Fold:
Amino acid sequence: MKRISLLLFCFFLVKGYGQVNIVHNPSFEDTIQCPVGINEIYNANFWFQPCVYYGNVINSSSSDLFNTCGWAPQNNVGFQNPRTGSGYAGIFVYEDTINGREYIENSLLSPLIQGKVYCVEFYVSLADSISSLAITNMGAFFSNDSLLVTSYYALSSITPQVENLNTNYLSSKTNWMRISGTFVAAGGERFITLGNFHNVGTTNTQSVSGGWVGVSYYYIDDVSVIDCDSIAGVEEMEKGEISISPNPATNEFTIKNAGLRMNAIHIYNVLGEEVLKLERIANSEKVIDVSEWKAGLYFVEVQTEKGIVRRKVIKSTKY
Structure:
């Protein structure tokens, strides 16, 4: 064996403007053939493992593919249903004695555009039979070229543009856990690589019941990379009268009123959950502290005497 439903306006934004996921085969449904054993990530079209070069030999086939056609939900490392569809991937992300790990990589539909903010999301689940450790350090790294390294130790020095919070242990062996974030593209990035980009000494681990000693293995499903602007392409009720800056924001942003009295402010995340509610606002501008918010896209709804004005804002750690 291989070692809220959404608020109506949010629904309208997501469904009505047709955002495009630029990840090929994002939920591992498109397969060359049904996987029947380990090391078969290559059977998912457009997915592969980053190449490791050993002298004259290139090894690029150790990550796993699972599918309900015969290798899921029960598989060699546990039991899990796909989050959606019929397929998902699996990788070792931590082995404490040998610094072992795997990654999966995908070519994007189109290169990223310099200065654009991209919303990134994928889901993971800890393999129940094999994992005795949960980690926090799952991330997504974007590069102009596919990765070719002399060892996976080299990937421990890479800083992913999007990474799970280092206080959020991904410990569920039954549920799919969401990892998401935003970043501003340098421009020209054509590949996304998923995995743990920390070495043994800097990986945050937490013991969980069962599994092999010192091992962490995750399933991966539903990978998306979307131009954040396409998510929030809303035709606003009052153009130019209420503005938000800076946007993206890291610590705070200011909502300014250029002629309308603000009666209330409601802010929602992409799941439609209300993260802030302010009422009886007397000033023409309001500073919003977002320093403790998760990185991502938020929707601002400002109630005025003329109606509701909606804006989008990005909470980002880099801009």
Notes: The two ends are 44 Å apart (CA to CA). The CA atoms of residues 1 and 76 lie 7 Å apart. Residues 1-18, 53-58, 232-239 have pLDDT under 50 and may be disordered. The longest helix spans residues 8-16.
